[in-house]
Amino acid sequence: MRFLAISGKTTKSLPRRTRNLQVLVDRYHFRFPSRRYNGKLWNEFQYVLGRRGPFPGAVPVCVCLIRNAEPFVELFIEHHQKSGFEHFLFIDNGSTDATIDLIAQYSGTTVWVTQLEFPRFAALARGAAVTAMTPENWVLILDSDELLRLPYDTAGADIQYATEYMDRHGYTAMIGQQLDLFRNGPLVESTEPVRRIQGGNWWCLPSDITREDVRSEIRWYGNIVANDQIQYLRGGIRKRLFGTNVTLTKVPLINSGKGVQYYGSHRARKAHFADTNCAVEHYLINSTLFAKAREHGYRHGSHNYSTFYGQIRDRLRDGGVDINEPDAISYQDCAELSGTPLVVVSESYRRDLPGKTDR
Q: Is the link from the previous residue into 252 a cis peptide, with omega within 30 of 0?
């Protein structure tokens, strides 16, 4: 079943479930929603498979919003399983491809459906899911085209190491810097599954990134940042190609049981951010970009989304996108970026790494 946008319709003309969503969204979507409000919102979500109730508090859970994510879901699940995640909560927004069928093939997966339109109300959907299903957990919140990379994860620093480290030091969240990965050359449309790094042919562009004091952005919401070296970043390859000064600094990992309130990919309240940040590999600039750009032409989004995808559609009309960035660096592992603004690792995080080798 295809779930349509709920905006732009009179409340009386909508079914009860959709009408309730419309009332809740109209009332609260510009505020930080309370747990009580998130609970009401979750009552309008629909169960598909997996767990019906909250996950056990002792396990980390990966929460992901999806819509026609068939090219990404296998990579997404298998990568995060290797990182130590055993439980996945997917919130679907009316996929019409094989996304849910692929997810159902993996153990530990749960799927619920919402009529809340993505990306316009994605923050509300994430907040409701975290409150209802992961109220006492460490929660990783990503999109389907994103992969978590913890510093030194290839050396054994998986999600268990990272969460235990943060628990010991009283941290309740970790900042993530988004790495927009791409390949030099023309973009060619394809529906083939996206594969992670192969032979060093993915690139990262640390230039064209503007830096700001992270506390000037993060502290607005009653947060604490443990390491002054972690900065608030914008720009990168999307700015270079399409002129959109997107925010790269995210809040992907939180402890929902410690009073942290999640509200959007780049915002949280009452969080104590760790002295080390993670990286978020972002596989947006690839062969699936064309389909996303076309779809977003018919769906509401934020100003940033509309501008970004509008620029892509303009480039397609003008003959396509050909990437040639000579100052980009070959990317294999986020540890290669340690010491740059993209990856900041504290000495205490390094000190107890598994293997206890010099790094």
A: no
What is the DSSP secondary structure assignment for residue 346, as one 8-state letter? Answer: -
- For 84-117, the DSSP string reads T--EEEEEES---SSHHHHHTTSTTEEEEE--SP
Q: CA 82 to CA 80: how far, in whole Å?
A: 5
Q: Assess contact for 290 and 187: CB atoms under 8 A.
A: yes
Looking at the DSSP bridge assignments, the partners of residue 262 are: 268
Per DSSP bridges, beta strands 109-113 and 87-92 are parallel
Tokens representing residue 216 in the block:
């000037």
Dmax over CA atoms of the chain, in Å, equals: 66
pTM of the model: 0.86
pLDDT of the chain along its 359 residues, tens only? 333 333 333 334 435 555 565 566 665 544 556 666 677 788 889 999 999 999 998 899 999 999 999 999 999 999 999 999 999 999 999 999 999 999 999 999 999 999 877 777 788 889 899 999 999 999 999 999 999 999 888 878 899 999 999 999 999 999 999 999 888 888 776 666 666 654 446 777 777 788 888 777 666 678 999 998 999 999 988 888 888 888 999 999 999 999 898 878 888 889 999 999 999 999 988 777 777 777 665 444 444 555 667 777 777 666 667 888 887 877 877 777 887 888 999 999 988 787 644 44
